[in-house]
Structure to design on (238 residues):
């Protein structure tokens, strides 16, 4: 349909080129005019060769209502966390879960890289001493320019041995976002200017989101943390 729409325009351009070329007496300017016209025609071909959809088919662009749910979840995240109802908040998801058996009465929480783990680690004491640590990684969506990158972020790993719980952060995830802006020669025949990807206010940009490692620990288990690792136990003063 698009190609049929442009056929009359292309024909008109060719006619204009032939007509104007005959009128131009300067050989240098004639070559310049022909070269510039060729570049414009090539730009049209390249423009329609670029995929209209996002390059990564695994990425999903959120609707406005989905973005609104996620922003509300971020606003409510910490209040719900310290009130013990984080699992009930709409827009908060379980990224990973672990069930770890501990025999010792003292648990040391350490990390290979304290800068790579969540700034918030929270523990809740159970009413029993069942010897099991239940760990859940809660997170909101990771969204950039309306696109959901949550699934691209790898989960943490947990290792428990000899009373030492080691939190291993995932490898650093890097991404590059490229947007194409339609030139005037093309945009004058289209709605918008080709920059809607980054200008659409219906899709707010927020790249970090919120996350927490939430642990349920046996009633009498004592907990210590390594330098750089911060852990709060609900209902207990530091």
């Amino acid at each position: 349909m698009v190609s049929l729409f442009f056929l009359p325009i292309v024909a008109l351009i060719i006619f204009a080129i032939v007509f104007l070329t005959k009128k131009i007496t300067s050989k240098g300017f004639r070559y310049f005019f022909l070269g510039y016209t060729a570049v414009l025609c090539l730009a049209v071909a390249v423009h329609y060769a670029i995929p209209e959809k996002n390059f990564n088919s695994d990425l999903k662009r959120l609707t406005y209502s989905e973005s609104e749910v996620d922003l509300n979840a971020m606003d409510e995240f910490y209040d719900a966390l310290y009130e013990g109802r984080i699992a009930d908040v709409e827009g908060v998801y379980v990224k990973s879960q672990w069930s770890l058996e501990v025999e010792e009465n003292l648990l040391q929480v350490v990390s290979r890289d304290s800068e790579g783990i969540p700034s918030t680690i929270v523990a809740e004491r159970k009413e029993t001493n069942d010897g099991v640590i239940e760990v859940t990684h809660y997170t909101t969506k990771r969204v950039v320019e309306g696109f959901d990158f949550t699934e691209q972020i790898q989960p943490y790993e947990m290792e428990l041995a000899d009373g030492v719980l080691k939190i291993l952060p995932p490898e650093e995830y890097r991404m590059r976002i490229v947007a194409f802006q339609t030139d005037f020669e093309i945009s004058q025949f289209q709605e918008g200017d080709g920059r809607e990807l980054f200008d659409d206010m219906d899709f707010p940009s927020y790249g970090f989101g919120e996350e927490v490692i939430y642990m349920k620990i046996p009633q009498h288990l004592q907990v210590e943390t390594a330098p750089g690792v911060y852990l709060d136990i609900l209902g207990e003063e530091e």
User: Anything to note?
Assistant: The helical segments are 2-23, 27-49, 64-82, 184-187, 196-199.
